[in-house]
Amino acid sequence: MAARITYLRNETLRTVKPDYPGNKLFGSQFANGEALYTPQFSNVFRWKFLTENPQKEEKKADTWTPDVVNCSEFLAGQDDGLVWLGHATFVLRTENTTLLFDPLLFDSAFLKRRHPLPCRPEELTNIDLLLLSHGHRDHLDEASIKLVARQNPGLQVLTSLRMTPLLRGMAAGLQVQEAGWWQQYDLGPEAPLEIYYLPAAHWHRRGLNDLNQVLWGSFLIRTQDKLIYFGGDSAYADHFEDIERQFGPIDICLLGIGAYKPAFMMQLSHTNPHEAAKAANVLRAGHLVPMHHGTFDLSDEPASEPLRTLQDVATGGMLRAELHAPQVGEVLPWTTWE
């Protein structure tokens, strides 16, 4: 019997895309647009036990890690800036507001950092908004959520539909605002920013029985004079065209470039460097800051390959945006970028 089709959104929030009915559900599972995506365990088995990585020796010899500089002074100050803390974790400060994206601050049994954090986790204070793109453990880390919530009691979380129970199980007092795709968060009439939750081509799972029960997505932040796009985790799909059509050219985009090999395992979850460049071009982005590479060993490509490939793409004229490849902890003066 076919799953019942329904649509879900936060009815208290503004939906900005005309005639968008909400996120499509097949029974209780969210979908990528119109299609339900179910990751296949057979692909995991094939990858781990039946496939030899053709770059095995190259990967073993590639010990590259991003350079790391301390960002404690920035975190303690009030100046505008954008700082990459590694993987998909960023701190953005603008309009006297500090935003933290997808914090992953600690090692776990399955995730070991290849480089240090550029600050002490305890220095992540005075955070106003915590933006959580989706529920995978390399983006939603329980230890990091507990620490950030404890250190920032006035924090507001902006995230996706059905995320609240998961978060309240980590930190019971969190203020959580959920949105569906194409919805604008309610930050109050005096807010200096506009923040939207937008599509991504991905999926959700943390346990055995929660496949696609929580929505995934991306974020757009509108400051007084710039649009900043945080892509979360996403495969390449037509949502990039939809976002550009809705909002026009993006000034700065933060896009993943790593964890793309083998393609049969990763191509429906992440963008490779060529796809990230294509997405930036489709978004008509002025600036591209890559992420999701160098911090953790998640896939088969050698550590330095994603950034080297993207730099080659840019050098060859196939990336129209200006490429910024920061050190971990480097403060990017994004407000000065044209």
TrEMBL record:
One of its GO terms (molecular function) is zinc ion binding. InterPro entries: Metallo-B-lactamas (IPR001279), NAPE-PLD (IPR024884), RibonucZ/Hydroxyglut_hydro (IPR036866). Pfam families: Lactamase_B_2. Gene3D superfamilies: Ribonuclease Z/Hydroxyacylglutathione hydrolase-like. Residues 98-293 form the Metallo-beta-lactamase domain. One of its GO terms (cellular component) is cytoplasm. Coiled coil: none annotated. This is Metallo-beta-lactamase domain-containing protein. It comes from Hymenobacter aquaticus. The lineage of its organism: Bacteria, Pseudomonadati, Bacteroidota, Cytophagia, Cytophagales.
